[in-house]
Write a structure and sequence with these properties.
Layout: E1 3-5, E2 17-19, H1 29-34, E3 37-39, H2 46-52, E4 57-58, H3 61-67, H4 70-80, E5 88-92, H5 95-104, E6 109-112, E7 122-125, H6 128-136, E8 140-145, E9 151-158, E10 161-169, E11 184-186, H7 192-205, E12 209-217, E13 220-227, H8 242-252, E14 260-261
Parallel strand pairs: 1-2, 1-3, 3-4, 10-14
Antiparallel strand pairs: 5-8, 6-7, 6-8, 9-10, 9-12, 10-11, 12-13
Keywords: ATP-binding, Manganese, Nucleotide-binding
Protein name: RimK domain protein ATP-grasp
Domain ATP-grasp: 75-263
Amino acid sequence: MRLLSFDAYRSFGIPDTRYLKPELMYRHEAEILAADWLLFPASWQVDVLAWVYNKRLFPSIQSYHLGHDKVRMTRALWAAAPAHVPETLILPSTPAALEEILDTFSFPLVLKEPRSAEGRGVALIEDRQALRDWAATHDVLYAQERLPIERDVRVTVVGDQVVAAYWRKAPQGGFHNNIARGGELIFEDVPPQAVSLVADLARRLKIDHAGFDVALVDGHPFILEFNVLFGNGGLEPLGVKLADVIHQYLSRETPGPTLQVVS
């Protein structure tokens, strides 16, 4: 199996993998065409590699196109699992949109930048002035209800498996549960309905490398978002060897993988 990676960090430890800098892509066309899989391309490479060179990518092209843009992601989730999406508005930044947001939500509410990760670009909006200030610097308003939670569940999908699931809890008085923002990991009593929802969505949407953030409200799971390039801080304590999982999945090369839950 010939593997060619464009991200040395993400592919570290995967056997038989050669690294190529993304900016050198056009100088190594023959090597790219000969590869069985292309791993972790930069987002700007994806269309050329998939549509021009007709190559198999990991993560999948669906993972890239949905996972890197919350607008696309949310619209896909509205179609796939509408009962599991928090109330959300996606609007142009106009005075009329501000009024619609005010008519729909109470404070505090959550505003997100369409392209962000690790808690960056996410704000808890407490009042009208904060809403106006955000709107003044953003062309698209992605507004979401604030759910009554103090923690969320990270469910990690790699290949055709759910490889990890754990709680993330914000620091005392904090808003962000992200580990990169100081969140605490809790591995006990992870709700199975969160894991099964993610397993189903990943299979349906053909997502093969993502960390899904799931909120639980009275036992009902809501998908907050998923990140294609997730941190592995919660995987190491569980003994998940990411490189081995990826290599095993790529070796199988299943055209229509069936998602499994790893206990």
